[in-house]
Amino acid sequence: MTEELIRELETLFRDYDVSPRGKGRRFPAPVKGRMITLLQSGTSPWELSRATGISLTTLCSWKDRNTNASFEKIEVRPSKAATARIYIGENAWIEMDMEAISSALLQKIRASL
Known about the structure:
rod-shaped; 2 domains; mainly alpha
């Protein structure tokens, strides 16, 4: 960690009147957000823990929780056969089984558009 980053963290803790040591300590959102940003940018949780006094367990927990939260959940419906969608327009498409698609069928669809 650079001296500049350490000074920034000290200023952040002082501005929000935060003491990193102690069990059950709650951190203000800006402090926690900055720690998470540093962790996601590649700063070692060990180095951050040593520099700030926040427990390694807490930092790893924040990193893990926010890594999972950044992904968007999508619903996957089980299907017996693989399907393909051929988009005709923004709100219109043809959906069919991959087994039913042939070059002749695709030529007919193209001709009808």
